[in-house]
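Format notes (please read before filing issues)

Several people have asked whether sequences and structure tokens are stored in separate files. They are not. Every record keeps both together, in the order shown below: the sequence lines, then the token lines. Line labels are part of the format and must not be stripped during preprocessing.
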Amino acid sequence: MDGGWSTIESDEGVFTSLIETLGVKDVQFEEIISLDADSIRSLSPYGVIFLFKWTNDRSSSPSHPPDGSYDTTAVDSGLFFAAQTIQNACGTQAILSVILNQESIDLGAELSSFKDFTTGFPPSLRGDALSNSEPIRVAHNAFARASPFADETARPPRPDEESADVYHFIAYTPVNGTLYELDGLQPHPISHGECDLESFPDRVIEVLARRIARYPEGEIRFNLMAVVRDLRIRAREFGDAELLQREERKRRGWAWENTLRRWNFVGFIGEMMRGVVALKEGEGPSAYADWVEGAKSETLKRKGYSQ
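Then the structure lines:
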């Protein structure tokens, strides 16, 4: 890596493996398909990560956000909040905004050290510390999709630009009796009123519903991920063999998918095609031509055409 931060997917297996790489214990991520309080309540989450298409919301200002209110004293009261100072890190930053604000989570040595080191820092300096943390950056980049191509002409959009391709992660979590929206692009944490872990599902659904309502009708490009206690622990505590088996199978699937993310197969595919073509050419010109025409015919059939 060149020292930058790569884009990672909004994926429960990626996020879970990322925090485990950093040393966090007994925490996982679960995608929430249905936007209702019962779906969230069943998971007893520490918080949620929300992914949405970023727009330049001109209703926001340094004095008040579009919803809720800025809490200018929360950081002084112990809330971890970091300004976003670098491209592509917002996913990991949103994850840490939940993880580092829940005292019951075992952070492990790396993140405990990072949290202790940044205690007392203002959000801007915490953002710089996060951006310059090599262990966190290396763990983050380990889950970027491998690609042999690099577009040197591409540049990230400026904050004041609209883009159809820019998506942003933010966190919602209850801290010290208040529901906070933690968005590194905002100047302060955003308070959405009184809330604890028990009331969190109902309260966060209300906030998310209002946020989604600000988008044009029909916009569906959102993703919601719950930060929860490792479901295998729950399965063992309740003696739920079926749940445990399902979770273990899911973990194996995540491990396989994450392994594939670390490799690009362009070279392999190119060599394989070269070998197949050489093999067909060795059988004679007519055999090669018949093979090509047969492949075209099969492709047309799959598309619903007939010759």
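For reference, the curators noted about this record: The two ends are 50 Å apart (CA to CA). The beta strands are 27-31, 47-53, 69-70, 167-175, 178-182, 190-194, 222-229.
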